[in-house]
Amino acid sequence: MRCPYCGKDNTRVVDSRPVDDNTAIRRRRMCDSCGKRFTSYEKVEMIPLMVVKKDMNREPFNRNKIEDGVVRACHKRPISPEQIRELVDGVEAEIYNSGVREIPSSEIGELVMTRLKDLDAVAYVRFASVYREFKDVNTFMTEIKKFL
Predict the structure, then answer these.
(1) C-alpha 81: how far from chain center
(2) Comparing C-alpha atoms, which of 31, 22, 33, 42 is closest to residue 13?
(3) How far is it, in rounded angstroms, from Cα 56 to Cα 104?
(4) Domain count of the chain?
(5) What percent of the chain has pLDDT above 90?
(6) Cα–Cα distance between 75 and 52 in angstroms, integer?
(7) Burial of 46 (0-12, 13-18, 19+ CB in 10 A)
(8) Is residue 3 part of a domain?
(9) What mean pLDDT value characterizes the chain?
(10) pLDDT of residue 148
(11) Please, what is the Cα angle at 64 between 78 and 115, to 5 degrees?
């Protein structure tokens, strides 16, 4: 690795340790030429994942879209940001662990709803009402009766 201070290629690793729940490695390096130390991070590059939308268009997977939807569903609910992050992490991990290169948006929505159902009933119904595009009150009531 090239030294950011002097630009020479002769650096060596002084210390390594895992970070971010073992998803990355932090390396302390030292330049053999100038003696300065710096830190580098290594992270596994995931396979590019495409999401197949309802209209059959494809777009790159974007974790932020899931997080935004969950945050909106959990607005003014007793759910911590940590719980939301864990939910989104779980959905993302399940998607990547499936090993597919393309995933329908409907499948992502179902994964989110399954986890929201266990977390908070109100957040689940909010998310489901947008995701399933409830057309009338009867559809809404049918979903709520699943909890009773």
Answers:
(1) 13
(2) 31
(3) 9
(4) 2
(5) 72
(6) 27
(7) exposed
(8) no
(9) 91
(10) 67
(11) 45
Cβ burial of 83 (10 Å; 0-12, 13-18, 19+) is middle
Same domain, 73 and 118: yes
Neighbours of 69 (CB within 10 A): 19
Amino acid identity, residue 142?
T
Cα atoms in the 13 Å half-sphere on the side-chain side of 15? 6
Is residue 39 one of the residues assigned to a domain? yes
C-alpha span between 40 and 74 (Å, rounded):
36
Q: Which residues, in sequence order, are CB contacts of 18 under 8 Å at separation 6+?
A: 24, 25, 26
Look at the pTM and tell me if it is higher than 0.85: no
The rounded distance, in Å, linking the Cα atoms of 132 and 74 is 17
Q: Can you give the residue range of the structural domain that contains 39?
A: 11-43
CA 17 from chain centre, in angstroms, equals 23
**8 A C-beta contact, residue 131 and residue 113:** yes
